[in-house]
Amino acid sequence: MAIYVLVCPSCHVVNKVLENSFLNAPLCSACDTKLLSALPIEADEKLFHHVINHSTLPVMVTFWASWSGRSHEMAEAVSSFAVLFQQDAVFLRINSKQEQVLANTYKLVDIPTFILFKSGVEYHRVQGGIGERELHAWLERYLRVKRKKQPHHHSSV
C-alpha cells in the first residue's frame, strides 16, 4: 500500500497518508484540516517551496496576475480541475506580481503559466492562451490519470 506525503494547506505540517485513505478525506495530524484541498491553495514563496519539496503527489502551480484577463477567465476552470484531480495532484496559485522572485526564477514569459512539479522538479509547463479543454487534456496526460471518462462540464466563463 502506497504512503504519500502531503503538506497541510492550513498549518503547513508534513503528513504521511496511506493512499487508501484518500477517499475518506484525510485530515492533518496537527490541525484536522483536510489535506486534499478542493480549491487551489493561495501560496507565497515559502509555502510554494515547502509543498513542492515535500509533497509526493504532483503539484500543479498556476502563476497568475490580477491584470491578466486570461488569468481571471481560467480561474474557474482551474478550480474545477482542483476538484476533479483532487486525489491526483496538489493545486497551488501564485500571484506573480506579489511573488516576483518566483516569477523570475521560473522565467515566466506569459500569464497565466501552468507548471507541473514532481519530486520538487518542474517536469512540464504550458502558458498563455491555453483553453479550458486543452488544460484538461494536458492535466490528464501529465498526471497520467487512468480513470473512467467522466463528462466534463465547462464553466460558463
TrEMBL record:
Protein name: Thiol disulfide reductase thioredoxin
Coiled-coil spans in chain: none
Residue span, Thioredoxin domain: 44-140
The organism's taxonomic lineage, starting at the top: Bacteria, Pseudomonadati, Pseudomonadota, Gammaproteobacteria, Alteromonadales
CDD domains cross-referenced by the UniProt entry: TRX_family (cd02947)
Organism listed in the record: Psychromonas marina
Highest taxon above the source species: Bacteria
